[in-house]
Amino acid sequence: MLSNVQELRPKPPESEKITINLGFVDLGHIDLMVKDGFYSNRTDFIRTAIRNQLERHADVVKQSTARKGLDLGLRHYARADLEAAQRAGEMLHINVLGLASIAQDVTADLARATIGSVSVLGALHATPAVKAALADRTR
Questions:
Q1: Helix count (H) and strand count (E) of the chain?
Q2: Is residue 100 a contact partner of residue 117, using CB atoms and an 8 Å limit?
Q3: Side-chain half-sphere exposure of 4, counting CA atoms within 13 A
Q4: How many CB atoms lie within 10 A of CB 77?
Q5: Are the CB atoms for 117 and 139 separated by under 8 Å?
Q6: d(C-alpha 91, C-alpha 93), whole Å
Q7: Separation of alpha carbons 65 and 58, rounded Å
Q8: Would you call 40 helix, strand, or coil by DSSP?
Q9: How far is it, in rounded angstroms, from Cα 75 to Cα 16?
Q10: 102-126 b/e (C-beta count within 10 Å ≥ 16 → b)
Q11: What is the tens place of the pLDDT at every residue in 19-61?
Q12: Alpha-carbon 125 to chain mean position
């Protein structure tokens, strides 16, 4: 049976892959905790450790987020958003803690004409052409 449901916007990934270097003894401790059943795998241990540290410093993070005027979470910029800013003669300043995504149909020229600065703590998803066009405006 064919589906007539069309995805309007691809779903962004739920996470970003990072690489860390650990000493052998630390890694051995993690493997021991996994082997003894405290965690399902190394990733589970590391995610839990990170979440515990973020929770421990939640007040400081919250104050810093407010002070820096960061949008928290997922912020998507559609072509229509940029075109509306262009018609209004406004420049957008992207300040996101989380994931900022710029639609795939946004051209490099439109991005340069409407985005004055980009500051993302987390991940920025955009086409390579848009990222290149905004490179000198990205902090």
A1: 6, 3
A2: no
A3: 0
A4: 21
A5: yes
A6: 7
A7: 10
A8: coil
A9: 16
A10: bbeebebebbeebbeebbbeeebbb
A11: 999 999 999 999 999 999 999 999 999 999 999 999 999 999 8
A12: 7
Helix orientation angle between 58-67 and 42-56, rounded to the nearest 10 degrees: 70
For residues 80 and 54, is the Cβ–Cβ distance under 8 A? no
Between CA 5 and CA 121 the distance in angstroms is 34
Q: Is the pTM of this model over 0.85?
A: no
Which CB contacts under 8 angstroms, 24+ apart, belong to 48-57? none
Instruction: Say which residues have a Cβ less than 8 Å from residue 57's Cβ, sequence separation at least 6.
Output: none
Cα radius of gyration (the chain) = 20
